[in-house]
Design brief:
Elements: H1 2-22, E1 24-30, E2 38-40, E3 53-60, E4 73-78, E5 89-97, E6 104-113, H2 119-124, E7 130-132, E8 136-139, E9 151-152, E10 160-162, H3 167-193
């Protein structure tokens, strides 16, 4: 009886792995000077200098607008090693797990100056030039060779403007820092009184 159960579990795992391998779409994470630019403080420029900024592609399951920010997953990054001024071009194909070829995915692009791992780290470090696009819908391509061309994620409109964080963002970061300080101080006082 145990061996029979083992075979059933192995079969289910094998089928699940095969299904998940098929349910993957591909995109090319890029933009170009004719589609959008990385600019500082305004859509009209100045352009961010080559090698100074990081841009991330985020994807969320569901394929519909209005997805909560917490659902987005960073799936690709174009970093400061790039040489293009004012725009990014990453030729790498990004595979989006859970997206069948031709499926509609919901995406977002975030950017920041510096070599931080993600948008939240840039904010926490006090980076003054950060920004993100509105979420947008984009199709995925076929990942299987011979591959149909992957679909470029150029569905977002306009420039990615890297500007100073909103005062509310700074206030939240300040509150977080104050809370950490207060908690440590309380613990320190408790230890001193003991």
């Amino acid at each position: 009886m145990k061996s029979g159960c083992g075979k059933v579990v192995i079969s289910m795992l094998t089928c699940g792995a095969a299904a998940s391998a098929l349910a993957q779409g591909t995109v090319v994470f890029e933009n170009s000077s004719s589609v959008g630019n990385i600019t500082l403080n305004s859509p009209s420029g100045p352009y961010a200098a080559a090698g100074t900024y990081t841009v991330a592609l985020l994807w969320a399951p569901g394929g519909h607008l209005g997805t909560a920010q917490s659902q987005f997953i960073q799936v690709a990054t174009y970093g400061p090693a790039g040489t293009s001024t004012g725009f990014f071009t990453d030729p790498n194909v990004v595979t989006i797990a859970g997206q069948t070829p031709g499926a509609v995915g919901v995406f977002e692009v975030q950017g920041w100056l510096g070599n931080y791992s993600n948008y939240a780290q840039a904010i926490a470090a006090g980076q003054s030039h950060i920004g993100q696009t509105a979420e947008f819908l984009n199709l995925t391509g076929n990942p299987n060779p011979p591959a149909t061309p992957p679909v470029n994620t150029t569905g977002w409109d306009g420039n990615l403007v890297l500007g100073d964080p909103e005062p509310s963002t700074i206030a939240i970061a300040g509150l977080g820092a104050g809370l950490v300080w207060y908690t440590r101080r309380r613990k320190s006082n408790a230890r001193n009184q003991a």
